[in-house]
Amino acid sequence: MEGVKKIKNPSTVKDELLELMFRIYRSTNGKYPALEWVKRKPNPNDFDGFREVYEPFLKFRLSQEFDELYTYQKDNRIIGTIALVYKRIKEKGIWWVPEELMNEKVGLIEFFVVDPEFQGKGIGSTLLEFAVKRLRSLGKDPYVVTFPNLEAYSYYYMKKGFREIMRYKEFVILKFNHKKFQ
What we know:
alpha+beta, 26% strand, seven-stranded mixed sheet, Aminopeptidase
Protein backbone atom coordinates (compact mmCIF):
# COMPACT_ATOMS: atom_id res chain seq x y z
CA MET A 1 0.00 0.00 0.00
CA GLU A 2 1.27 3.46 -0.88
CA GLY A 3 0.52 6.70 0.90
CA VAL A 4 0.52 8.60 4.19
CA LYS A 5 0.25 6.43 7.28
CA LYS A 6 0.08 7.43 10.96
CA ILE A 7 2.59 5.60 13.13
CA LYS A 8 0.88 4.77 16.41
CA ASN A 9 4.04 3.61 18.18
CA PRO A 10 6.98 5.53 16.65
CA SER A 11 9.67 3.56 18.50
CA THR A 12 8.75 0.50 16.40
CA VAL A 13 10.12 2.17 13.26
CA LYS A 14 13.25 3.74 14.83
CA ASP A 15 15.75 1.54 13.00
CA GLU A 16 14.10 2.11 9.62
CA LEU A 17 14.00 5.87 10.29
CA LEU A 18 17.67 5.84 11.29
CA GLU A 19 18.56 4.23 7.96
CA LEU A 20 16.40 6.74 6.06
CA MET A 21 18.05 9.67 7.85
CA PHE A 22 21.49 8.25 7.06
CA ARG A 23 20.61 8.02 3.35
CA ILE A 24 19.64 11.69 3.49
CA TYR A 25 22.78 12.60 5.46
CA ARG A 26 24.89 10.82 2.85
CA SER A 27 23.05 12.39 -0.10
CA THR A 28 23.48 15.92 1.33
CA ASN A 29 27.16 15.26 2.07
CA GLY A 30 26.52 15.71 5.79
CA LYS A 31 24.48 18.93 5.62
CA TYR A 32 21.23 17.34 6.83
CA PRO A 33 20.48 16.31 9.47
CA ALA A 34 22.66 19.19 10.63
CA LEU A 35 23.87 17.51 13.85
CA GLU A 36 24.55 21.04 15.11
CA TRP A 37 25.17 19.81 18.67
CA VAL A 38 28.08 17.58 17.59
CA LYS A 39 31.63 18.93 17.79
CA ARG A 40 32.93 16.60 15.08
CA LYS A 41 30.38 15.32 12.60
CA PRO A 42 30.78 11.80 11.22
CA ASN A 43 31.88 11.21 7.66
CA PRO A 44 28.82 11.04 5.35
CA ASN A 45 29.73 7.42 4.53
CA ASP A 46 30.12 6.29 8.17
CA PHE A 47 26.81 4.72 9.23
CA ASP A 48 28.12 3.58 12.63
CA GLY A 49 29.44 7.07 13.40
CA PHE A 50 26.14 8.59 12.30
CA ARG A 51 24.14 6.15 14.41
CA GLU A 52 26.27 6.92 17.47
CA VAL A 53 25.45 10.64 17.38
CA TYR A 54 21.96 10.62 15.83
CA GLU A 55 20.23 7.64 17.45
CA PRO A 56 19.91 9.20 20.96
CA PHE A 57 18.41 12.36 19.40
CA LEU A 58 16.03 10.27 17.28
CA LYS A 59 14.92 8.33 20.39
CA PHE A 60 14.17 11.65 22.15
CA ARG A 61 12.19 12.91 19.19
CA LEU A 62 10.17 9.71 18.81
CA SER A 63 9.40 9.26 22.52
CA GLN A 64 9.10 12.84 23.81
CA GLU A 65 8.94 15.49 21.10
CA PHE A 66 6.59 14.33 18.34
CA ASP A 67 2.86 14.39 19.04
CA GLU A 68 2.05 12.68 15.74
CA LEU A 69 4.36 10.92 13.29
CA TYR A 70 3.34 10.13 9.73
CA THR A 71 5.24 8.22 7.09
CA TYR A 72 4.85 7.88 3.37
CA GLN A 73 5.25 4.26 2.47
CA LYS A 74 5.72 2.40 -0.77
CA ASP A 75 5.85 -1.39 -0.83
CA ASN A 76 5.96 -1.40 3.01
CA ARG A 77 9.11 0.75 2.96
CA ILE A 78 9.25 4.18 4.62
CA ILE A 79 10.32 6.68 1.97
CA GLY A 80 9.14 9.90 3.63
CA THR A 81 8.28 11.27 7.05
CA ILE A 82 6.62 14.24 8.68
CA ALA A 83 5.95 14.90 12.36
CA LEU A 84 3.67 17.32 14.15
CA VAL A 85 4.48 18.99 17.46
CA TYR A 86 1.68 20.97 19.08
CA LYS A 87 1.13 19.83 22.68
CA ARG A 88 3.01 21.43 25.60
CA ILE A 89 5.79 22.71 23.34
CA LYS A 90 7.35 24.73 26.17
CA GLU A 91 7.60 21.69 28.44
CA LYS A 92 9.36 19.53 25.85
CA GLY A 93 12.70 21.34 25.98
CA ILE A 94 12.80 22.00 22.26
CA TRP A 95 15.70 24.45 22.29
CA TRP A 96 15.48 25.37 18.60
CA VAL A 97 12.04 26.98 19.02
CA PRO A 98 11.85 30.62 20.20
CA GLU A 99 9.91 31.41 23.38
CA GLU A 100 7.25 33.41 21.52
CA LEU A 101 6.26 30.30 19.54
CA MET A 102 5.76 28.15 22.62
CA ASN A 103 2.00 28.57 22.87
CA GLU A 104 -1.22 26.69 22.16
CA LYS A 105 -1.79 28.28 18.72
CA VAL A 106 1.48 26.97 17.25
CA GLY A 107 1.88 23.70 15.40
CA LEU A 108 5.38 22.73 14.32
CA ILE A 109 6.09 20.66 11.24
CA GLU A 110 9.21 18.64 11.97
CA PHE A 111 11.14 15.67 10.63
CA PHE A 112 9.99 16.37 7.07
CA VAL A 113 12.13 14.26 4.76
CA VAL A 114 11.84 12.22 1.58
CA ASP A 115 14.27 9.48 0.60
CA PRO A 116 16.67 10.90 -2.03
CA GLU A 117 15.71 8.09 -4.42
CA PHE A 118 12.07 9.29 -4.39
CA GLN A 119 12.46 13.07 -4.38
CA GLY A 120 10.77 15.06 -7.13
CA LYS A 121 7.80 12.68 -7.37
CA GLY A 122 5.26 14.68 -5.31
CA ILE A 123 5.73 12.73 -2.08
CA GLY A 124 6.99 15.78 -0.18
CA SER A 125 4.07 17.88 -1.41
CA THR A 126 1.64 15.17 -0.29
CA LEU A 127 3.20 14.99 3.18
CA LEU A 128 3.43 18.75 3.63
CA GLU A 129 -0.14 19.37 2.48
CA PHE A 130 -1.33 16.65 4.83
CA ALA A 131 0.57 18.21 7.76
CA VAL A 132 -0.72 21.74 7.09
CA LYS A 133 -4.32 20.51 6.84
CA ARG A 134 -3.97 18.38 9.98
CA LEU A 135 -2.56 21.26 12.04
CA ARG A 136 -5.25 23.64 10.77
CA SER A 137 -7.94 21.09 11.68
CA LEU A 138 -6.55 21.23 15.22
CA GLY A 139 -6.75 25.04 15.22
CA LYS A 140 -2.97 25.47 14.97
CA ASP A 141 -0.89 27.83 12.85
CA PRO A 142 1.71 25.74 10.94
CA TYR A 143 5.39 26.66 11.42
CA VAL A 144 8.67 25.18 10.19
CA VAL A 145 12.14 25.60 11.69
CA THR A 146 14.98 25.18 9.20
CA PHE A 147 18.58 26.25 8.60
CA PRO A 148 19.75 29.24 6.54
CA ASN A 149 22.41 27.12 4.79
CA LEU A 150 19.69 24.88 3.35
CA GLU A 151 18.48 27.42 0.78
CA ALA A 152 16.77 24.82 -1.38
CA TYR A 153 14.62 23.74 1.57
CA SER A 154 13.64 27.33 2.42
CA TYR A 155 12.79 27.97 -1.23
CA TYR A 156 10.64 24.82 -1.30
CA TYR A 157 8.70 25.92 1.79
CA MET A 158 8.19 29.42 0.41
CA LYS A 159 6.94 27.98 -2.87
CA LYS A 160 4.41 26.00 -0.83
CA GLY A 161 3.02 29.04 1.00
CA PHE A 162 5.37 29.59 3.94
CA ARG A 163 7.20 32.85 4.62
CA GLU A 164 10.15 33.68 6.82
CA ILE A 165 9.06 35.45 9.99
CA MET A 166 12.29 35.48 12.02
CA ARG A 167 15.79 34.22 12.63
CA TYR A 168 16.43 32.52 15.95
CA LYS A 169 19.88 31.31 16.99
CA GLU A 170 21.16 29.45 13.91
CA PHE A 171 17.65 28.76 12.59
CA VAL A 172 15.12 30.27 10.19
CA ILE A 173 11.49 30.27 11.33
CA LEU A 174 8.82 30.02 8.62
CA LYS A 175 5.05 30.34 8.99
CA PHE A 176 2.36 29.08 6.64
CA ASN A 177 0.82 32.19 5.13
CA HIS A 178 -1.91 31.07 2.74
CA LYS A 179 -5.50 30.04 3.09
CA LYS A 180 -4.94 27.10 0.75
CA PHE A 181 -1.97 24.85 0.32
CA GLN A 182 0.00 25.76 -2.83
